[in-house]
Design a protein that fits this description.
42% helix; 6-stranded parallel β-sheet
Length: 396
C-alpha cells in the first residue's frame, strides 16, 4: 500500500488542537471528525519529514557533502564509497541522528501505520471509552515490536460503514486494518478480502473471507449467567442486546435461548431488551422492565454502560438490585462503586489487544514469519466476579 496525503491539504496545515500525537492514537475527546484525523496524520508526517531533512542538512554541512550523498550513504547505496559511507555513519552516530521512519515509509510504499476502525456518535459512551482504550494499549504493545503505529478511523454512527471504509482504503494510508463492531453480515469483510488488504476483526461474522478474528466469549457469558440464575430459582430472566445488527447480539441471544432450553425454559421475546451503549439506555430498559405486568426476576446486561442507568431507575422505583431483582453485568470503572456490588464479567483487555495485534501481524506478509501460528481465530475468555447484585435465592 502507498501513503497518500489527504487531497487538498496544504503545506501550511496547522497542528490540530486535539493532537496528543498520532502514535498515541487518540485525543482527550476522541476527535469526532475523520477530517481532523486526516489533518493530524498529515501534520505528523509533515513534521517528521521536516525533522529528517533538517537532520540530513546538518550532517551534510558538518561533513561538507551534498544532501544527496549523505542520504545515499545513510541508506547504504552502492554508488557511495565505503570510506564515505563509514564517515557519514560515524558522524551521524556522534550527532545522535536517527533516520526518520515516516519518510522512509513514504518512499518504500509502506506507511508504518495500522488503522483501527471504530464507530463514534453522541449515543456511544462509556463502554466505547473503557473497552477500546484498554484494547488499544495492548495493540500498541504488539505493533511497537515492528515500529508500527496505530491510528483510529472514526466512522460517524450515521454514516454507512462500508462506504466510509472504501473511502479510507482508497487513500492508502494504512498497511493493515482492524475492524470492530462486526455485523451479522458485514460487507466490509468481503471488500477488504477482495482488495487484498491485511485485516483482522474484533468479533465474528457470518461474512467469512478466511480472515483472522478474536471475539469475546459472549456465548459463554450467556450460558454461565443463565445457569447461575436458574440455580438461584429464577425462571423469568431478561437479557439485553445491541439495538442493531452487531453480531455479538445474535451470538448472545442464541446462547441464552439454548441455555434456558437446557433447563426446560423459554426465552420470552418481551424480556429481550435492545440497547445503545450508554447510561440513558440502561435507565430506559429499567423503565420498560418495571412497566411489564409480569416482571422478570433477573436481568443480564451485555454492556457496562447500562448498569448505572439501570440502578438509578430501579432505585427511583424502590426496587433493590440484589434483593428484588438479580443483575449480572460487565466490568467498568464504575463497577467497584456500585451498591450493591455488581456481579460482572471481566476480561483482560490489554492481553486481548496484544493478541489482536499479533493476529493482524501474522496476516501481513512482511511480518508473517515472526508469527508461525498463522491465521488466528480465537474466542477470548471472560472471568465472572461475584458480587451482591445477584446474591439472593428466589423463593418460590
Amino acid at each position: 500500500m502507498h501513503a497518500v496525503l489527504p487531497p487538498g491539504t496544504a503545506a501550511s496545515f496547522a497542528k490540530p488542537a486535539c493532537a496528543v500525537n498520532v502514535y498515541g492514537i487518540i485525543s482527550e475527546n476522541v476527535c469526532e471528525s475523520i477530517g481532523h484525523w486526516r489533518g493530524l496524520l498529515y501534520w505528523r508526517l509533515r513534521e517528521d519529514l521536516n525533522k529528517t531533512m533538517i537532520g540530513i542538512k546538518r550532517l551534510a554541512q558538518q561533513l561538507n557533502l551534498s544532501i544527496g550523498t549523505v542520504s545515499r550513504a545513510l541508506n547504504n547505496r552502492p554508488d557511495v564509497s565505503e570510506a564515505t559511507r563509514r564517515r557519514v555513519q560515524d558522524v551521524a552516530r556522534q550527532l545522535g541522528y536517527v533516520p526518520n521512519q515516516s519518510g522512509r515509509s513514504l518512499r518504500r510504499g509502506q506507511t508504518g501505520v495500522v488503522a483501527f476502525m471504530m464507530q463514534t456518535g453522541h449515543n456511544i459512551t462509556g463502554h466505547g471509552d473503557t473497552f477500546i482504550m484498554g484494547v488499544f494499549n495492548g495493540i500498541q504493545t504488539a505493533l511497537a515490536r515492528h515500529h508500527l503505529d496505530l491510528v483510529a478511523l472514526l466512522c460517524p454512527s450515521d454514516e454507512d460503514a462500508e462506504g466510509y471504509l472504501k473511502r479510507m482504503v482508497s487513500r492508502s494510508f494504512a498497511d493493515g486494518i482492524i475492524l470492530s463492531s462486526t455485523q451479522r453480515v458485514d460487507r466490509r469483510i468481503d471488500f477488504l478480502a477482495e482488495r487484498g488488504v491485511p485485516f483482522v476483526t474484533l468479533g465474528r461474522s457470518q461474512s467469512d473471507a478466511g480472515q483472522p478474528w478474536i471475539d469475546t466469549d459472549f456465548a459463554g457469558m450467556a450460558e454461565r449467567s443463565i445457569d447461575r440464575l436458574v440455580r438461584k430459582g429464577h425462571r423469568r430472566i431478561a437479557i439485553t442486546v445491541p439495538d442493531d445488527e452487531t453480531n455479538l447480539g445474535f451470538v448472545f441471544t442464541e446462547a441464552a435461548r439454548a441455555a434456558l432450553a437446557a433447563h426446560g425454559l423459554g426465552l420470552d421475546p418481551q424480556l429481550v431488551f435492545g440497547f445503545v451503549p450508554n447510561e440513558a439506555s440502561g435507565y430506559d430498559i429499567a423503565d420498560r422492565l418495571l412497566a411489564l405486568p409480569d416482571r422478570p426476576s433477573a436481568i443480564v446486561l451485555l454492556n457496562p454502560s447500562l448498569t448505572t442507568g439501570l440502578y438509578r431507575r430501579l432505585g427511583e422505583a424502590g426496587v433493590e438490585p440484589g434483593g428484588d431483582i438479580a443483575v449480572i453485568g460487565r466490568d467498568s470503572p464504575q463497577s467497584p462503586f456500585l451498591s450493591p456490588r455488581l456481579t460482572y464479567f471481566r476480561e483482560d483487555l490489554d492481553s486481548l489487544g496484544v493478541a489482536l495485534g499479533k493476529a493482524l501481524l501474522a496476516s501481513m506478509p512482511r511480518y508473517a514469519k515472526a508469527y508461525p501460528a498463522g491465521i488466528i481465530r480465537q474466542v477470548w475468555p471472560t472471568e465472572l466476579i461475584e458480587g451482591e447484585s445477584d446474591a439472593f435465592t428466589l423463593k418460590r
